[in-house]
């Protein structure tokens, strides 16, 4: 006969109360059991000593004769220090497959390349901002000479009555200074 240490539900609807029992594993969950070895009341606070009560002597006896605890009962026994519980999850099962790993690696390399390109562009911009002072001096003279020679459309040209803005110099003055 295969014996299991498991929970047997009692209590009212939406008010669960469990007995921790040693039962034949082929019997119904709430059916006939061999012995009650503890209680579990999930409605109580987690730090309440009345939440889980265990009869350690009887639990040790049933474990010695080969009874197998259910997962929840094994957790209770581990907390009580009666029996150490083994991890049941397979950590390898949750890892991504080979194709997913390859896609993630490819995505990471593309992101790194984009980041490097952005840094290089930023460094070039900084270098261009620092270096152009000597280079811009000759470049500024040529456009300054060409600008007054260009004619503006009649609509945009200031009227003869209007005074030029403070920043602007009259076209005649620019030519005379040269």
TrEMBL record:
<comment type="similarity">
    <text>Belongs to the bacterial ribosomal protein bS16 family.</text>
</comment>
<feature type="compositionally biased region" description="Low complexity">
    <location>
        <begin position="127"/>
        <end position="136"/>
    </location>
</feature>
<dbReference type="Pfam" id="PF00886">
    <property type="entry name" value="Ribosomal_S16"/>
</dbReference>
<protein>
    <recommendedName>
        <fullName>Small ribosomal subunit protein bS16</fullName>
    </recommendedName>
</protein>
<dbReference type="InterPro" id="IPR023803">
    <property type="entry name" value="Ribosomal_bS16_dom_sf"/>
</dbReference>
<dbReference type="GO" id="GO:0003735">
    <property type="term" value="F:structural constituent of ribosome"/>
</dbReference>
<dbReference type="GO" id="GO:0005737">
    <property type="term" value="C:cytoplasm"/>
</dbReference>
<feature type="region of interest" description="Disordered">
    <location>
        <begin position="81"/>
        <end position="178"/>
    </location>
</feature>
<feature type="compositionally biased region" description="Basic and acidic residues">
    <location>
        <begin position="166"/>
        <end position="178"/>
    </location>
</feature>
<feature type="compositionally biased region" description="Basic and acidic residues">
    <location>
        <begin position="95"/>
        <end position="126"/>
    </location>
</feature>
<dbReference type="InterPro" id="IPR000307">
    <property type="entry name" value="Ribosomal_bS16"/>
</dbReference>
<dbReference type="GO" id="GO:0006412">
    <property type="term" value="P:translation"/>
</dbReference>
<feature type="compositionally biased region" description="Acidic residues">
    <location>
        <begin position="137"/>
        <end position="154"/>
    </location>
</feature>
<keyword id="KW-0689">Ribosomal protein</keyword>
<keyword id="KW-0687">Ribonucleoprotein</keyword>
<dbReference type="InterPro" id="IPR020592">
    <property type="entry name" value="Ribosomal_bS16_CS"/>
</dbReference>
<dbReference type="GO" id="GO:0015935">
    <property type="term" value="C:small ribosomal subunit"/>
</dbReference>
């Amino acid at each position: 006969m295969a014996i299991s240490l498991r929970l047997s539900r009692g209590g009212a609807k939406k008010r669960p109360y469990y007995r921790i029992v040693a039962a034949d594993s082929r019997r119904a969950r709430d059916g006939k059991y061999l012995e009650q070895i503890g209680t579990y009341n999930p409605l109580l606070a987690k730090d309440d000593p009345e939440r889980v009560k265990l009869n350690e002597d009887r639990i040790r006896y049933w474990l010695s004769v080969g009874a197998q605890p259910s997962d929840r009962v094994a957790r209770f026994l581990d907390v009580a220090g009666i029996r150490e519980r083994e991890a049941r999850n397979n950590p390898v099962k949750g890892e991504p497959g080979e194709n997913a790993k390859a896609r993630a690696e490819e995505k990471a390399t593309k992101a790194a390349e984009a980041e490097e390109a952005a840094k290089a562009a930023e460094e070039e911009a900084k270098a261009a901002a620092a270096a152009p002072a000597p280079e811009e001096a000759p470049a500024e003279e040529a456009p300054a000479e060409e600008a007054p020679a260009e004619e503006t459309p009649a609509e945009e040209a200031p009227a003869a009555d209007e005074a030029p803005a403070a920043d602007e110099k009259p076209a005649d003055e620019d030519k005379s200074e040269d």
